[in-house]
Amino acid sequence: MEIADRPQPPTGAARLLFRAPVHLYRWGLGPLLGGRFLLLNHVGRTSGLRRRTVLEVVDRTDGGAPIVCSGFGSRADWYRNVLAHPRVLVQVGARRFTAEAEPLGADEGAEFLARYARGHPRTAVRLARMMGFVVDGSQEDFRAAGRELPFVRLRPRA
What we know:
By secondary structure, the protein is of the alpha+beta class. It has a single domain (2-156), classed as Pnp Oxidase, Chain A, CATH 2.30.110. Helices cover 35% and strands 30% of the residues.
């Protein structure tokens, strides 16, 4: 695995495009995205305002807790927000639940990315390229990329 040029979080028109799925949830059309995406409702770390972000579910734990990844690294606002305020509201399709956001260790994230790549090989290569990684498609390359990215478990609260 080679680290090319790590991109900054999107701004301008690209940011609007990335935020488009949030509007689907606002219009009640979140179920169209299925279980592969979720809406994360979180609190801004400095503003204290409610924020929303749609994220791809990389995997689920045995207990069903979604695992998500910050493709733009630890600089992503949503990631920094959940570190500061880990109690979040998650919506997957039409189902909502409160959760505790738990950052995962590098080795755990590496395994989740490798497993994602086994299930979605072409998408994983394209996403890795978009995140600034050059991978050869091997499990070890995806593990190496996964060690560079922050992963979060969204553990449902009882």
